[in-house]
Design a protein that fits this description.
single chain
Length: 319
């Protein structure tokens, strides 16, 4: 459902504890070796004889001071190690909590999008069943009045005007229904729905050449995958119309075994990813893809257009 959170391991599992054991072994070995060499060469007696001329400066007390300092430094190092160990555990716990919160957030986001799509479907159905039928009834009555008012020019003109307005309102309602819920997506499948959406967009923007290609078996995909890919294309075309100032748009949809890949590219003005804040549309695209355990990539630069790549697991119908 959402991107898998990386497994976090304890310090001992990640190799910290074996390193400490090795270092302690080295310390013990060096200590024993030093003691053996000191006994063999009587280093302490030699050190006392060497320090005798400096008795007035109490330099002979220096070895004890160095030993005390070594013990203090060892204690200090142990304290710092314990502090670092505790801080590392706290950070690992925070990362785990953050990963769980991210998973929960993606689950909520996916559920929110599902509810939104369901509401859109219901609203489109209501527009079709209620408003569409009412407009059609008005048009039928107006046609009947027009046909029986040949000798009444004022009534005939009004009836014709009502028919024209009814046609315009119905076109607006049909456009709203298409944006809310593409009928072709339910009736004809993803390939035909995207093609129809691209054709409708091309009619509204004849100055932009829009090419759409589809490859592979795209039937039988799950509802989530279908609507996500359709919304991706829809949002990309909307951004082109609003911001890109493009003359060419290329859209490719391809299924390769258990994955579906969408490639979108335009030759518009592009933008700097490091400077420009991504709008809610791009954030929504990324969230939709990642909520299905997919991968989303946005590539752009000033004067180089925009390219979007999305790869989504091809969930089968009913899954």
């Amino acid at each position: 459902m959402s991107a898998r959170t990386p497994t976090l391991q304890s310090p001992s599992a990640r190799g910290i504890q074996p390193s400490v054991a090795r270092d302690l072994a080295i310390v013990v070995a060096v200590t024993i070796l030093t003691f053996c060499l000191s006994v063999l060469f009587e280093l302490n007696e030699r050190l006392v004889l060497a320090m005798a001329p400096f008795e007035a400066y109490q330099i002979d007390e220096l070895p004890i001071t160095v030993v005390a300092m070594s013990i203090a430094m060892a204690w200090f190092s142990w304290r710092r190690f314990r502090h670092a160990h505790d801080e590392l555990n706290m950070r690992l716990a925070a990362q785990q909590a953050l990963g769980l919160a991210l998973d929960e957030n993606r689950m909520l986001s996916q559920r929110s999008m599902q509810v939104q799509e369901e509401e859109r479907r219901n609203l489109a159905r209501e527009l079709h069943d209620e408003l569409g039928q009412s407009i059609n009834a008005i048009k039928v009555d107006a046609v009947n009045i027009r046909d029986h008012s040949q000798g009444l020019p004022d009534i005939h003109t009004s009836a014709v005007a009502i028919i024209d307005v009814s046609n315009q309102v119905y076109d607006v309602v049909r456009s709203l229904m298409q944006r809310l819920r593409p009928v072709a997506l339910d009736d004809l499948g993803l390939r035909s729905a995207v093609q129809y959406g691209v054709d409708q967009w091309q009619r509204r923007h004849p100055d932009v050449r829009c090419k759409f290609d589809a490859h592979g078996e795209l039937d039988g995909l799950s509802e989530k995958v279908n609507i996500t890919l359709y919304r991706l294309v829809q949002e990309c075309l909307t951004n082109v119309a609003k911001h890109a100032i493009a003359t060419r748009v290329t859209i490719s949809l391809k299924r390769d075994r258990d994955k579906v890949r969408l490639d979108f590219e335009d030759d518009g003005k592009g933008f700097d990813l490091s400077e420009r804040k991504q709008g809610l549309g791009l954030i929504g695209l990324r969230e939709r893809v990642e909520s299905l355990s997919g991968q989303f990539e946005l590539i752009s630069a000033p004067g180089s257009g925009v390219r979007i790549k999305a790869v989504i697991p091809a969930g089968e119908e009913g899954k």
